[in-house]
Amino acid sequence: MSTKRVEQLHAQGVRTRAHLLETAREAFAGCSDASLNSIAKKAGVGIGTLYRHFPTREDLIFELYRAEVQQMAQAADDLLDEHPPLDAFRLWLTRFARYAMTKAGLIGALQSATSRGRFAQEARGPLTAALGRLLEANRAAGTLRADLTPDDVLLAIAGLYQLDPAEDWEPRAKRILELVCLGLCRRDGARAVGAGGAAGAV
């Protein structure tokens, strides 16, 4: 087989994999129990093609989740490049809230497909690293409490997962995040939040 043909097949495989992931993302957004057969059919490929790229349901779900988590982690750096540290922190929490609500189906599929240990490892690693960068920037700026850890923040916003994504969750999520930010800020930082920092409509 010629080098050109190998490159063509590789490029086709990359496109097929990306198409399968996008189809699965849409499927799990609507139903956490979406079957691999239904995903393959919707993508217009045979089930064998799907299995070549993702041998198990868990492999497919984890690849989807890994990509989503990496996007959230990258968002921390992007926001720090574009905004003051406290605004970047608040805006990242807003994105996290939207992620938690709009990806509820994917998270449900993930929890049903795998063990808690692997879920925690895949989710917490990039997210805690991203939060660590946000916290460090705010410590340097003197806007957040110096004793905070990424796990503290994740525990503080865990209440978001109690909201029903099928209801009007945005006003309550906004109130939750405002309370969290006020609790995590230093006294002078808290005044800055109330005075018109990046409120970031959820």
UniProtKB/TrEMBL annotation:
MF (Gene Ontology): DNA-binding transcription factor activity; transcription cis-regulatory region binding
Entry keywords, A to Z: DNA-binding, Transcription, Transcription regulation
Domain HTH tetR-type: 14-72
SUPFAM superfamilies: Homeodomain-like (SSF46689), Tetracyclin repressor-like, C-terminal domain (SSF48498)
Keyword DNA-binding: yes
DNA-binding region coordinates: 35-54
Gene3D superfamilies, sorted: Tetracycline Repressor, domain 2
PANTHER family named among the record's database cross-references: HTH-TYPE TRANSCRIPTIONAL REGULATOR BETI, HTH-TYPE TRANSCRIPTIONAL REGULATOR RUTR
Stated name of the protein: DNA-binding transcriptional regulator, AcrR family
Organism expressing this protein natively: Nocardiopsis flavescens
